[in-house]
Amino acid sequence: MNEALEAKTQDLINKVVYHRKGVERSYTNRILNVAESMALLKYHDYFAGRAVLDIGVGTGRTTRYLYPLASKYVAIDYSPVMIDQMHETMPQVPAFLCDARDLSPFQDGEFEFIFGSNNVVDALSHEDRLRCLQEIFRVLKPGGMFLFSSHNRDLAPNLRKPTITWSRNPVDSAIRVRNWLRSMANKARVEQYQREEADYALYCDSGHDYCCIHYYIDQRTQRRQLESLGFTVLEVLDPFGQSLQPDDRVPDSHWLMYVATSRYPAATG
C-alpha cells in the first residue's frame, strides 16, 4: 500500500469513530489534566486577554477554562457530532466545523494562542499532520504560542493489548468478556494498518476500544519537526507536569505536552 492510500485509509478508519453518533459520550470529562493545568498557569500571559483558537475542541472540556479569559475565542472540530454538542451545550461559544488541515477560514496571524488537547493532531497521517502544523503556524501570530499534546513513541514497547479484569459479579464479568472480545476483534481488524518509520509510527492503541490508528513520535523527533516548521520549543512536559530535557526518554508516559512559539515564516514543500 502506498503512502497516499495509507493516509486515506487511516483517515477513513478514524473518521468512522470520531464522526459516529454518540461519540460525544466518551468525552464527558470536564477537568484539565495535570500537565495542562501547569502549562496554562505558567503560560497564562500567552492566552489571557488574547485571541485563542481551540482545535479539536470536542465537547468543550478546555473551553470552560479558555473562553472566559480570552479576548477572542474560537473553537473548531472536524466532527459534526462534536460541534452539534457544542452548539447545544454552549450556544454562546463560537464553535465551527473545520478541519485543522485546512484553516482557510482564518487569516494569517489571526490568533495569539492555539491549543490542541487530547492528542488531536495524532488522528492524522504523517503528511496530513505536517500540513496541519503548517496551517497552525500560518494562523498563529509571530511570537504566539502553540500548546498541544501528542502520543509518545517511547511508550511503544509498553503499549497495552486488550485485557480483562475479573469481577466477582458474574454479570459484570460477562460484560467485561464481551468488551474484551470486541476490543480483540477491533484490534485484529485495524492493526494491519500499523506502520513503523524512522521518525514516527502509526499504532492501533486502546483508544475507543482499539478502533483507531494514531500517530506516535518521540520528543526528540517532535522537537526537530517543530523547529523545521518555524517553531521554537520552549518546553516539553510529561503527564505529571515535569519538564523534560531534550534527550530524556520517557517510556512510561503515554503522551507528552509541547509548548512552542512561532519564530519565522513556515517551511513549505
What are the salient characteristics of this protein?
single chain; 269 residues; alpha/beta; Rossmann fold; 10-stranded mixed β-sheet; 31% helix; 21% strand
Q: Decide which structural class fits the backbone.
A: alpha/beta
* Number of E-type strands: 10
> Tell me, what's the shape?
globular
The third-level CATH topology is Rossmann fold
Low-confidence stretches: none
Description:
This protein is α/β, with parallel strands linked by helices. It has a single domain (3-153, 217-262), classed as Vaccinia Virus protein VP39 (Rossmann fold, 3-Layer(aba) Sandwich). The protein is 31% helix and 21% strand. Strands 1, 2, 3, 4, 5, 6, 7, 8, 9 and 10 form a 10-stranded mixed sheet that branches. The longest helix has 21 residues, at 170-190. The model has no long low-confidence stretch (mean pLDDT 93).
Topology, element by element:
Layout: H1 3-18, H2 34-42, E1 51-55, H3 63-66, E2 72-77, H4 80-89, E3 95-97, E4 111-116, H5 126-139, E5 140-152, H6 170-190, E6 195-196, E7 201-203, E8 214-217, H7 219-228, E9 231-237, E10 255-262
Parallel strand pairs: 1-2, 1-4, 2-3, 4-5, 5-8
Antiparallel strand pairs: 5-10, 6-7, 7-8, 9-10
In short:
The protein is α/β, with parallel strands linked by helices. It has a single domain, classed as Rossmann fold (3-Layer(aba) Sandwich).
